[in-house]
Here is the input.
Amino acid sequence: MGRLLAFTLGFTESYALRRLAKMRADGKDYVIVFTIEPVVGAAKEAFNALKTMAAKMGVVNVEMEPLPQGDLSKAISKALFKLRVFAQSGYTPVHVDVTGGSRYIVSALVIATLMLRGFERYLWIASDTGEDWDTHINLSEFDKIYCNPLRKEHERILHYLASKGKGATTREIAEALSLSEKTVKNRVSELKKLGLCAQPGRGEEVTITPWGEAVLISQLTRPRTPR
Here is the structure.
């Protein structure tokens, strides 16, 4: 059994075909395209073209899943159910490409993919031409971050690195935060496992990662519950 490859579909199949080619999709993979219901003629044509070209690549399992428009919660629920059914059946990892399609369908599928906990999954997006840039996020890393609440010491280290604007050694961090260097080393090691900071080698400077900056904004700006 192969991967689950999911796409948002508008009036063109080109985005999905490029992804299938780049990922060397084959007969073991399962392809689902999400679009708005009722499905209009142009979307049907794009889906049929995708199915025909995918078959030439050896990809035979291709289906369309229309999502209800006008109620985003229903669209998310339906998309999430579909993704989970196939993931639980063994089609993993789950790759979701939201390059094409309407903003409504893209929003529904992004949220559904974030909610698909417990499975290795990737969210992909490319430029309109597919030539300028092509990027993705490993949402399993996202899960690790948000399923592991940060300690106060983690937050202090991230805040210090962000405010410093450059790297710092564990000794510098310990002195600045009035912590033991051993404690800082332990907390830095934990932050590295979560992908929130980086350290090229032992004894070298620690830097905050883009994920670390995002978590800092997310967690440290929340109102604290009075104790």
Observations:
- The longest strand covers residues 30-37.
- The chain has a mean pLDDT of 91.
- The longest helix spans residues 72-88.
